[in-house]
Amino acid sequence: MFTNTDINFEALKRKAYNGRWATLEDGIIPLTAADPDFRMSEEIEKGIIEYIKDGYLSYGPFSGIPEFKKSVAKHFNVEKKGSFTPDNVLAVNSAAQGMFLIAKYVLQPGDEAIIFDPVDFLFKKTVDAVGGTIRLCPVDSKTGDIDFEMLVSLISPKTKLISICNPHNPVGRVYSKEVLKKISEIAAAHDLWVMSDEIWSDIVYDNIEFNTYSSVSEEAKRKSFTVFGFSKSFGIAGLRIGAVLCNDQELLDDFTEKSNFNSTIEGVSTLSQIAASVAIEKAKPWFKDFLTHLQHNRDLAYAMLNNSGILAPNHPEATFVIFPKIQNGLSSDAFAQHVLQEGKVAIVPGSERWFGKGAEGHVRICFSTSHEILKEGLHRIINSF
Q: Does the keyword GTP-binding apply (predicted)?
């Protein structure tokens, strides 16, 4: 499994957008958007087909169908040390939408949100979209280490939210229980909300322990939301399915009401929820093989880049992206353009647009493809100079 022969390139060239196969000229290898090159598991495909066999696609409950809520709660409780009930789960139209709805619920125009730098661009975009003000807290671009003194110094009377990305995109850090507990203590001391984006939390290597944020302390359960999605782990990005979880039921009920889910304005495709439920309940064996493949690719990417003299890699504990530092003095944009033109490989520059000011001097390379494609792509990058 997970070799070149398992990839349907014709399908990818028709369907894989977002900077990938369908948007690039033939001959270019995309190591860009964080989306697997492999098809979803057969269990998910069969689950979708089985669900529509009777010909009905009726309205579901506005907050999510029971199968979905039950499976997500169980997944977090078993795999991530959570303590959620099915009622603590709200189905949303992608993790990205969950982030936006949380920002909209928590922030008024002019309120401040602290986000880490570098981090995925959606953190900034969702705060900007609701009129909030960003305060950037630098993290180490190789390790993801947080400067807690800096974090505290950024808090003002206008601060309402700390947003964390765990595991961290693009650095690949898994934050320990101790680190998360420290964040919860700071948030509680200043009566702040916390949003934890945990979309990458299935893809963790070397048996490193993952703790969902709300599990680390009683303080963490207060005024916190967790965001989850299925696009990374199970390759179903096109179904646009995610979840918001919250241990405080009154809080989640209020969030659900104010986010317009108690009507037909909001709500998520039942088909997408069925696919996600089947993924959790029946596709875990497929996922474990996928995770093993990704860890081998992580090791390959690290080894090749570490010996390249061109890029100095970090060592991701999670995710399927690597975030090496440019060694030859080029800017992130110039490096990515050079690699595209001379090496015929598309990568994501560590520019402010994508990851914030702290990403400059880096590029992000996605390795959720075959061993063969990754090796060829990295060879092209290294040999293009």
A: no
Region 260-284 average pLDDT: 93
CB atoms within 10 A of CB 302: 17
Main-chain dihedrals φ then ψ at residue 166, nearest 5 degrees: -140, 115
Strand partners, 134: 113
Q: Which of 208, 195, 211 is nearest to 318 (CA)?
A: 208
What is the CA 132 to chain-centroid distance, rounded? 22
Percent of the chain with pLDDT over 70: 100
Q: Which two tokens stand for residue 35?
A: 């989306």
In 80-217, alpha helices (H): 95-106, 121-129, 148-153, 177-189
- 3 Rama class: left (phi>0) / alpha (psi -120 to 50) / beta: beta
Predicted TM-score (pTM) of this structure: 0.96
SS (H, E, C) 157-184: CCEEEEEEECCCCCCCCCCCHHHHHHHH
pLDDT for res 263: 84
Secondary element (H or E) of residue 133:
strand 133-138
Both tokens assigned to 162: 């700390």
CB 275 within 8 A of CB 47: yes
At 363 the three-state DSSP class reads strand
CATH number, domain 4-40+284-383: 3.90.1150.10
Domain spans in the chain, listed from the N-terminal domain onward: 4-40+284-383, 50-282
Q: How far apart are CA 32 and CA 16, in angstroms?
A: 11
The dotted CATH code for 50-282 is: 3.40.640.10
pLDDT in tens, 203-249: 999 999 999 999 999 999 999 999 999 999 999 999 999 999 999 99
8 A C-beta contact, residue 345 and residue 381: yes
- Quick check: helix, strand or coil at residue 332? helix
Q: Please give the angle made by the CA atoms of 129, 133 and 136, to the nearest 5 degrees.
A: 110
